Amino acid sequence: MENKTLDTVQDCCGSFMEIGTVIAEEDNVLVLPIASTDQVSAQAQFDAIAANAKQRFSDVQIASEWEQDAQRLTGRLSFSCAAERLIFEMALG
């Protein structure tokens, strides 16, 4: 069985896009900024999202950091591939 890679350029409404450049293979990290007045509620919100990710993709890596000055929690979900990240992100709506 021969494996062929096709790189094509698509034209839609006068715009051109090379297939394969839209989703990079290494684009597997979803960054979620959650603004809140307190760390506990922001962490609870992120934990719910992270639990959902872990349920769908067991090997997802989870990290979060509270930024006191910005009153924001930055959550990071690292998936094993870009397709998993994209599927999960689209399900978030």
Automatic annotation (TrEMBL):
Pfam families: DUF406
Transmembrane segments: none
Alphabetical list of Gene3D superfamilies matching this protein: 3.30.70.860
InterPro entries cross-referenced by the UniProt entry: DUF406, UPF0234-like_C
Similarity comment: Belongs to the UPF0381 family.
Record PANTHER family: UPF0381 PROTEIN YFCZ-RELATED
This protein's name: YfcZ/YiiS family protein
Species the sequence originates in: Ferrimonas pelagia
